[in-house]
Structure formats: structure tokens, C-alpha cells
């Protein structure tokens, strides 16, 4: 049974049925989530391919959004997309582990603002390992398309602008990335400076909504890729 709000339920909450948070704050949280929900559900369904699982992910996204310190969130829509994608990918990853199949990279969950130093360090390590896998297995174009689409819910027309490719080719880059991540391909060497730069940009985008920085880093890598 879904526990995230519909518009009507959000209006009822604002009539005094919730003790905390404050009505205005709750109303803002509900409005932001309701506006973002159709896009979040679409993202979850694209990743999971199952409507029920997608609904479960959206419910968990709502619960996490309720528990987030929203005063420090610069881009609520970006945070909701990122949370949804990571939760959905975690579901996929868990299913693959249960089937004892080879694991492909997944994006760590959003940072807990109240997390312990140990939890922060663990998440940093998870991001570093995930980004390293993407750099070892994907070309810059594939990596850019995959991260922006699967990690942050970018539309294909925006990805095509960043890659300077057609929308059709942008979609192909994501498909090729997914194929590479699910296959046993030879890993390529990774420059440590480039790895660190992408990790920092990813964390800034995931935690603070600084997507412009992530776009710049990814685009600079694409510019260095030889044209084919």
C-alpha cells in the first residue's frame, strides 16, 4: 500500500493532521514531491521494468525525502531523481546478487546528513569504486550518457547537446554502456587524476545538486576522446 502523498492527501496533511514538521514546511515538501513524482516513477520503471517494484522505490524515495534536512538542499528535483535512481539500481543489484550473477556497477545511495564519519567514509569509498568501474569499462561518451541518464534522469535531448550527437546516438551510447557493464570486457587503465576529478564532481552533484560541474567534467573527457 502506497504511503507517499497524492495531492488530496497532501492538502489534508496541511489541515492539521500532522504534528511535525511545520505545516508550511510539510506543504513545500509535498508539493515538490507531487510535482516530481511522474518523472520519478518513469525513471524507476525504466530501470526496474516492473510497475510494482517502481512504486515501492517511489514510496521509499518519499520516506527519505521526508527525513531529509531540506534546508540544505539546493536542487530538490535533482536530489529526488538521484535518490530514485540509486534505490532502483540497488534493487537491481540485490536481485543480481541473489541470482549469483556477476555484478555491474551501481551508484551509492544519497548521503545521510546525520551520518557518522564511518558512514561518510564508506560512501566515499563506494563512489570511488563505482566511478572506477565506469572508467575502466566505458568510453567517455558512454560514461557521460550513462551517468547523466541513469544517475540523474537527464532527458536524451540534453545528453545529445552535451555529447554533440543526435538524440538517437545519445540513446545508443546508453545502450552500449549497459551492454558493456553486463559483459566481461577487458578493463582499460584509468588516470588517477581524472578518476579523482570525476568522483568529486559526482559527489557534488549527488549531495548538493551541482550538476553544472559534473557536466563540465564529463564534457571535458568527451572532448579528449578521439573522434570516430
Automatic annotation (TrEMBL):
Protein name per Swiss-Prot or TrEMBL: Sigma-70 family RNA polymerase sigma factor
Keywords, in A-Z order: Sigma factor, Transcription, Transcription regulation
Annotated ranges, domain RNA polymerase sigma factor 70 region 4 type: 129-180
GO BP: DNA-templated transcription initiation
Taxonomic superkingdom: Bacteria
Signal peptide: none
Family: Belongs to the sigma-70 factor family. ECF subfamily.
Record-level Gene Ontology MF annotations: DNA binding; sigma factor activity
Region of interest called Disordered, as start-end residue ranges on this chain: 100-122
Annotated InterPro entries: ECF_Sigma-70_Domain (IPR052704), RNA_pol_sigma-70_dom (IPR014284), RNA_pol_sigma70_r2 (IPR007627), RNA_pol_sigma70_r4_t2 (IPR013249), RNA_pol_sigma_r2 (IPR013325), RNA_pol_sigma_r3/r4-like (IPR013324), WH-like_DNA-bd_sf (IPR036388)
Residue stretches making up the RNA polymerase sigma-70 region domain: 37-97
Amino acid at each position: 500500500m502506497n504511503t507517499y502523498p497524492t495531492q488530496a492527501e497532501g492538502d489534508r496533511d496541511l489541515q492539521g493532521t500532522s504534528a511535525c514538521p511545520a505545516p508550511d514546511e510539510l506543504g513545500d515538501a509535498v508539493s515538490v514531491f507531487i510535482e516530481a513524482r511522474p518523472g520519478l516513477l518513469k525513471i524507476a520503471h525504466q530501470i526496474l521494468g516492473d510497475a510494482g517494484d517502481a512504486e515501492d522505490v517511489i514510496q521509499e524515495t518519499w520516506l527519505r525525502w521526508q527525513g531529509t534536512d531540506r534546508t540544505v538542499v539546493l536542487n530538490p528535483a535533482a536530489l529526488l531523481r538521484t535518490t530514485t535512481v540509486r534505490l532502483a539500481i540497488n534493487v537491481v543489484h540485490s536481485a543480481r546478487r541473489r541470482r549469483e550473477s556477476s555484478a555491474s556497477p551501481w551508484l551509492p545511495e544519497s548521503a545521510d546528513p546525520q551520518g557518522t564519519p564511518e558512514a561518510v567514509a564508506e560512501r566515499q569509498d563506494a563512489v570511488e569504486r563505482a566511478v572506477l568501474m565506469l572508467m575502466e569499462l566505458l568510453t567517455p561518451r558512454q560514461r557521460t550518457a550513462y551517468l547523466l541518464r541513469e544517475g540523474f534522469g537527464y532527458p536524451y535531448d540534453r545528453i545529445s547537446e552535451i555529447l554533440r550527437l543526435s538524440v538517437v546516438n545519445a540513446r545508443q551510447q546508453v545502450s552500449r554502456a549497459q551492454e558493456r557493464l553486463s559483459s566481461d570486457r577487458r578493463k582499460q587503465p584509468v588516470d588517477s587524476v581524472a578518476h579523482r576529478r570525476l568522483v568529486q564532481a559526482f559527489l557534488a552533484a549527488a549531495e548538493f545538486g551541482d550538476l553544472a560541474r559534473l557536466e563540465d567534467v564529463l564534457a571535458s573527457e568527451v572532448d579528449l576522446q578521439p573522434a570516430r
